[in-house]
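Consider the following input, taken from an annotated entry for DUF317 domain-containing protein (Streptomyces chromofuscus).
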Amino acid sequence: MRRKQWQGWGPGEQAEQHYLVEPRALAGGGDLRHVSEFLRACGWRDKSKPGGPLVLDSPDRTIRIGYNPHVLPGGWTIHGKATHSQGEWTVTLGRQTPVEIVAGLTDTLTRPLSAHAPNVWAPLQEQRWNTTRDAKQFAAVSPDGTAWMQFYEDQSGHAMWWSGAHDQQGNGWTATFTASTPMHLVQAFSTALASPEPVMRPRGRVPHGSQIRTTSVSVLPSQLSAWQQARVQAARAATWARNWTANRPRTTARPHATTNHARTRTRR
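Applying the prediction step yields:
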């Protein structure tokens, strides 16, 4: 374990011990607000009941995101209704799926669709994941063997995406995506899954495991709050800009004025 100290502390605050954890796929669930506060800032409607599971609906009510720890196996469910251009789809992610990886997918739901064709495998190959392929399955495994991503088709022709991570003791999580899940969302997930960036967890919330590497950092509460607010404010600003562009009144070009007005002539 390495140790690092943040500089620039102000008076009157007590630093708290946190850890940068890698690989991120084994960092544990984390703070749900990393996902929920961003969505609320993007205009998603909070349908949660007091003491109940988290439930958020997209502004157009076509997508619902839920987190329920009170059932088995529990975790995240993301469901998209069928539309004129997209079939119904569902994503489920286990309780220990890091919120940073969940957010890789859910943040994408708030942004305009990219013009580029999605490629689920590109982010994994860029991080040197090991890939295998046969007639029924395409799979990628992280270099350390802790995380995977698969697309497979069973004997009945039913296809689906399957992903997850586990340590040598079998602790971890899994995620499933119906074959109808929009490909750009699956790519957003694989990008977050393959990211080499560590994630931060407070003391007492770091899973135990021989494959987990940590860096100890001392962080002020005001720093944590500032980082969280920066993410929320960025979401609000982007949402405002999109709404302003979509709703601004269109101006009608004035017809060219007639040329009957008098002109000054040069006398010869």
